[in-house]
């Protein structure tokens, strides 16, 4: 059932559900009915709802200073950038408010790099079919999905798409105009496919061979969700540029573009900007998220709970092959492809009626993105609802 609001643009097919508060892994409606949230605002509520440490950080900052321009020093921004660079491949960070903006910065950084090196003809970026990088005009062009581009006029120039896994097509697509290859290490909207480690390694080698940049879009899979701080770490490769968002803000709008010193070559004073990017409220929450994630035991918890999740999901798929066809993804970013005669959108709605919140993805995939704080009991609860739905 859809819910229409005359004064809102009709861009979302809203359901009739209305939640009034959240606590940990649960959302509550006006009648205090409890829903198990394995959607987490589409991979955003990384630490669940109203995590006390995040609430405290936001309240304290709200009493001190909300917004100040990037014309001035913002100590919490320096702190968050230093923490992100200390724990990743990166040397430099630009803060944005969303994933698409973090990706815009990534695309601009790659183009500007070659411009600064005196090779402005190198501006094209190779992307993969089925990818999703955001809804701005540039990120739509990067994603290349016809259903998202239709009606929005000329598609921004400079993106060449190849089929995932087609090595010959990929090699053929690299020309003297290629600046970078862009990929999600684990795709989200497209159908929750984890790129095999050897493919990420192959992409790194190919980029090195051709002196082009490797860009990872970890807006959905980054910040602990895969069991690693960043999903690409599992493959032992490093990008030159990476976009993150969603989880890093834990529910507060925050994104970031991380780059090496070298790749940031062209980004100088005046090259790029964002009024709100790196705002004190966002920085307070971003730092609070990292306080928890970087605690020595936290990612171990994610890895342990992920392997339990994997076991339970694998046996679910084995037990109900008429409904659940293929388990995908890594860590706490999981997809189950449904049988071709089971349409994922009504299935998501059915699960909502049973008080389990999930998200649909491409290729008829049911997406499960629980907060990283889940315990076995939450997984057991979700599995029993998924079993009931299949019966
Ligand atoms: C959600 C998402 C984006 C876009 O993020 P917004 O915050 O919605 O702009 C980009 N890339 C990936 C992989 C995403 O999942």
Plain-language structure description:
It contains 12 helices and 15 strands. The protein is α/β, with parallel strands linked by helices and 391 residues long. It has 2 domains: 19-51 and 297-390, Aspartate Aminotransferase, domain 1; 65-293, Aspartate Aminotransferase, domain 2, CATH 3.40.640.10. The chain has a 7-stranded mixed sheet, with helices on both faces. Strands 1-2-3-13 form a 4-stranded mixed sheet. Strand 7, helix 8 (197-210) and strand 8 (213-217) form a beta-alpha-beta unit. It is globular. The chain starts with 18 loop residues before the first strand and ends with a helix. The site of pyridoxal-5'-phosphate has 14 residues, from helix 4.
Secondary structure: elements and pairs:
Elements: E1 19-23, E2 26-29, E3 34-37, H1 40-43, H2 52-64, H3 75-86, E4 92-96, H4 99-116, E5 124-128, H5 137-143, H6 146-149, E6 159-162, H7 167-173, E7 178-183, H8 197-210, E8 213-217, E9 241-244, E10 255-259, H9 280-293, H10 298-319, E11 324-330, E12 333-338, H11 344-353, E13 356-357, E14 359-361, E15 365-368, H12 376-390
Parallel strand pairs: 3-13, 5-6, 5-7, 7-8, 8-9
Antiparallel strand pairs: 1-2, 2-3, 4-10, 9-10, 11-12, 12-15, 14-15
Question: What descriptive keywords fit this protein?
Answer:
391 residues; alpha/beta; 12 helices; binds pyridoxal-5'-phosphate
| Lateral arrangement of strands in the main beta sheet | 4-10-9-8-7-5-6
Structure classification: alpha/beta
- Give the CATH level 1 class of the largest domain: Alpha Beta
- Ligand species: pyridoxal-5'-phosphate
CATH topology of the largest domain: Aspartate Aminotransferase, domain 2
CATH superfamily of the largest domain: Type I PLP-dependent aspartate aminotransferase-like (Major domain)
The total beta strand count reads 15
Helical region count?
Answer: 12
Query: What is the correct CATH architecture of the largest domain?
Result: 3-Layer(aba) Sandwich
Helix content: 25-40%
Radius of gyration based on Cα positions: 21 Å
N-to-C CA distance: 22 Å
């Amino acid at each position: 059932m859809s819910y229409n609001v005359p004064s809102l643009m009709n861009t979302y097919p809203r359901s009739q559900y209305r939640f009034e508060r959240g606590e940990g892994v649960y959302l509550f409606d006006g009648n205090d009915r409890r829903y198990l949230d394995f959607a987490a605002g589409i991979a955003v509520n990384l630490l669940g709802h109203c995590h006390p440490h995040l609430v405290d950080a936001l309240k304290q900052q709200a009493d001190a200073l909300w917004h100040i321009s990037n014309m001035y020093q913002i100590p919490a921004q320096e702190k968050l950038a230093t923490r992100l660079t200390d724990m990743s491949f990166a040397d430099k960070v630009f803060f944005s408010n969303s994933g698409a903006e973090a990706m815009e910065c990534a695309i601009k950084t790659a183009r500007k790099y070659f411009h600064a090196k005196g090779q402005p003809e190198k501006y094209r970026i190779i992307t993969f079919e089925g990818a999703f990088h955001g809804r701005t005009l540039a990120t739509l062009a990067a994603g290349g999905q016809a259903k998202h581009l239709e009606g929005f006029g000329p598609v921004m120039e400079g993106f060449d798409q190849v089929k995932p896994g087609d090595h010959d097509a990929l090699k053929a697509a690299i020309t003297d105009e290629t600046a970078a290859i862009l990929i999600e290490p684990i795709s989200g909207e497209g159908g929750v496919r984890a790129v095999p480690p050897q493919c990420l390694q192959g992409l790194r080698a190919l980029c090195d061979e051709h002196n082009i940049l490797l860009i990872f879009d970890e807006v959905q899979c980054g910040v602990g969700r895969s069991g690693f701080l960043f999903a690409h770490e599992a493959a032992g490769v490093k990008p030159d540029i990476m976009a993150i968002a969603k989880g890093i803000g834990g529910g507060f709008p925050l994104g970031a573009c991380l780059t090496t010193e070298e790749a940031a070559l062209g980004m100088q004073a005046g090259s790029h900007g964002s009024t709100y990017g790196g705002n004190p409220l966002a920085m307070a929450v971003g730092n609070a998220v990292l306080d928890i994630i970087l605690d020595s035991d936290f990612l171990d918890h994610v890895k342990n709970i992920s392997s339990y999740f994997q076991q339970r999901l694998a046996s679910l798929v084995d037990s109900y092959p008429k409904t659940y066809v293929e388990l995908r993804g890594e860590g706490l970013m999981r997809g189950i492809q449904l049988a071709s005669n089971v349409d994922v959108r009504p299935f998501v709605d059915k699960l909502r009626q049973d008080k389990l919140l999930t998200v649909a993805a491409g290729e008829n995939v049911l997406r499960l993105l629980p907060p990283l704080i889940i315990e076995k009991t939450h997984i057991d609860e979700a599995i029993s609802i998924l079993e009931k739905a299949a019966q």
